[in-house]
Amino acid sequence: MRIILLGPPGAGKGTQAKQLASKIDLPHISTGDILRKNVSGSTPLGLKAKDFMNKGALVPDELVTQMLSERLKEPDTSKGFILDGYPRTISQAETLDGILKSRSEEIDLVIYLDASDKVIVQRITGRLVCKKCGANFHIKNMPPKRDMICDNCGAELYRRADDNEETIKNRLEVYKKEVSSLIRYYDRRKKLYSISSDGKAEDVLDDMVKLVGAVA
Ligand code: AMP
Fold this sequence. Notes:
This protein is of the alpha/beta class. The chain is 49% helix and 15% strand. Helix 2 crosses helix 3. Adenosine monophosphate binds next to helix 2 and helix 3.
């Protein structure tokens, strides 16, 4: 099953995508995670992407699309995947449709995780991310057992460079402009389902698993 998760930054998309992926045994593909790995490894892609990311702007399509199409060539994607952070634009959605069409595949389900602005800002400003495994924590809502240490792998936690109030406002604005057209794009194709993510993480995950079961 090929699933796209859409949702504003802070809707809990990253955490939910990882948990859904392990529940239904599909690879979780996050373009933000892949880009961050490239930035921290100072790869040629990372060096090109870094300034865009720090400003909260979108990284140019050709860089991200190239990176995604390489990832989709890996054999674990043959049974499907959960895409998180891609597509961000109609042009990316069309590119993705093209890549899948060449494999006689298509997107089966698009889940829109909806969240209010207040919840979003509160979630993002408290977010902590593991340097090694990428797991997410929250200073108040989901604190790690040991201060700034990942519960899963013991590596150090950090705050993302783009998780500050100034950048969040920009990311939310960019996101809202882009997402409305994507919502229409997938709604027209009868792929779109919306789930509220203002509530507890376990309930949101339950709703997603039920939805995947109903669509499968
Ligand atoms: P995310 O982790 O999805 O919030 O992404 C973090 C940052 O990575 C974004 O603010 C963009 O700068 C960049 N990024 C991630 N995915 C994409 C994409 N599909 N297109 C362009 N830029 C992206």
